[in-house]
Amino acid sequence: MDTSSPDEIEDCSTKLTVDVWLKRVERRRQLAYASEYDFCNDQPMNDEALAKRGSWTGRYDFLLSLLGYSVGLGNVWRFPYLCYSNGGGAFLIPFTVMLVIAGLPLMFMELSLAQYVGLGPAILFKRLAPISEGIGYGMILVSGMVMLYYNVIIAWTVFYMVVSFEDPLPWRGCQHEWATVNCFSYEEEDNCLATNRSYYMANCMSREQYRLLNVTLRTPRKPPAEEFFKNYFLQISAGIEETGMINQRLAICLLVAWAIVFLCLSRGVKSSGKVVYFTALFPYVVLAALFIRGLTLPGAYDGILYYVRPDWDKLRTAQIWGDAAVQIFFALSPAWGGLLTLASYNRFDNNCYRDAIVVAISNILTSFFAGFVIFAIIGFLAHELDTSVDSVIDQGAGLAFVVFPELVGKLQMPRLWSVLFFFMLLTLGLDSQFTLMETVVTAVLDTFPVLRRRKIAVVAGVSIVGYLGGLIFVTNSGMYWFQLFDKYAANWSVLLIAIAECILVGWVYGCERFISNIEEMLGKRSKWFHRFWVTVWKYITPAMLLFILCFNWLQYKPVAYGRYIYPNWADVFGWIIALAPFGIAVIVAVKNMSTSSSPFAWQTIRKLLQPSPEWKPSQPRLASEMAYENSNGIEL
């Protein structure tokens, strides 16, 4: 029998909305407080098993982890290129619009969902609506596939950071075994011309020797950094069909990368939450240092102008809006399971609304600032090579492992800047990898709670599987597999899952009901808050996601790497990994319906669309209330 007085009840309910709480107080009076539940229990988790999940221990652990997950390599090596190719500063307008109507709503939705129930995606959707159980599994599969090849990038940065201590840098000049006749070093050419000789096919020769060669065609020029990356570092084969051998150098670096991830996650969010204080903030220090140094270089001003000069006519094209939508969606990474995983370790009353806004704004500012840094140093490189900016700009791995290494050789103290740059890439990559890994580990622990006592063993097991799965990316054909996974692994299924998520929360579970749950965590919100988020979650965001999906399909081109065209079987495999996560969601939905005596009857579907009895908030007091209401057939 609950003998709490109304005053005592209200004292333990300060986090609820006034209207909701008054209704519950009145209902309890009518029921004469007849209950075996403890309505004033304010412990952070809803049962003994969930209490062992762990939680963030520091005040800013979650915020910095979320920032590190959302601000990654794409902000440095993809956004500047998109901004340059889509009207410079004009690109910020559609980018901001897409952030408000697509990126931020999905981030806030997922953070609120997971924080409310304190569960990761593997269990959350099963309890939210049993028919949607497969959505969580699809998210985990996406994170698992991305986790495999994303850690390969970290392995690359580990290698480049280590060899950056060599003097001279190993990619300087063409006088190496890995250099081909196409290798062209401007530094060697200048030295050769200074002795009144000719530079051709990576050799310095006399004018007579040059004349006897009867040169009629210019060979394609490739910088030493590109030759080093492909011929020495990757030892790349002619195509994906030629797997070749495992590159031992890369295999060791990949092992080191997985060892770093394992050590940082061995104690779950308690350990990773402390590491992110460094990994999330250090990249800003390096970016600031590179920016200051870049401004002192000749040609930097021209590079920055090339980056920000607005072309307002671009705003009339669909391309700029489509690119902005795709970039913000994949920058914040909703529907991957990572946001749900991070938020599931939050306190029930954490202000996830504030966190979502802070991270979203930080993402835009970081991306734009990174563009200034990249284009300042690219402007200098173009000045040094006496060529235009557009001839040296690149994105992705080409920018990080070809353009920048070529650049640092022309700076004073090249080893220092090389070490700083690749250490920055390492920390940017680790933040995202931590969350991808934690998503998979959390899925295992939520599904099999008995394993929580052996979390180190689980993390070790996932790391070993991840390492073995990543070995395909360190073979001679590894770069081709990398490009294949990078294009398909987190593409259409992620968009389809996000659309299904919006429909599930906005229309099936109900926006008003969901906002009521948010108010239980954050307190009373304004009517404007209600109207805005109901409109966005039910109409605007799903429509925008559908636009992104259609835009991606219309812009689809088979994967290619340089001039290499992938065989048909590789494209088929790419489509399989692209649609597999959403396919799992559909298969699990059909399986759950088929367990009923009337599998596809409306009554069965309607029942599977309702929250299960286990759907309850992570705050025990509210969970007790909900359990009491369910057991007595009471509706609020």
From TrEMBL:
Pfam families, alphabetized: SNF
Keyword Transmembrane listed: yes
Membrane disposition: Multi-pass membrane protein
InterPro entries: Na/ntran_symport (IPR000175), SNS_sf (IPR037272)
Residues spanning the membrane: 62-79, 91-114, 135-163, 246-265, 277-300, 320-345, 357-382, 416-436, 456-482, 488-511, 532-554, 566-590
UniProt KW Transmembrane helix keyword: yes
Provenance organism: Anopheles arabiensis (Mosquito)
Binding site for Na(+): 68, 71, 75, 363, 428, 431-432
Disulfide cross-links: 174-183
GO molecular function, one term: metal ion binding
One term under GO cellular component: plasma membrane
Keyword annotations of the record: Disulfide bond, Membrane, Metal-binding, Sodium, Symport, Transmembrane, Transmembrane helix, Transport
Subcellular location: Membrane
Protein name, per record: Transporter
Recorded family membership: Belongs to the sodium:neurotransmitter symporter (SNF) (TC 2.A.22) family.
Superkingdom of origin organism: Eukaryota
Alphabetical list of SUPFAM superfamilies matching this protein: SNF-like
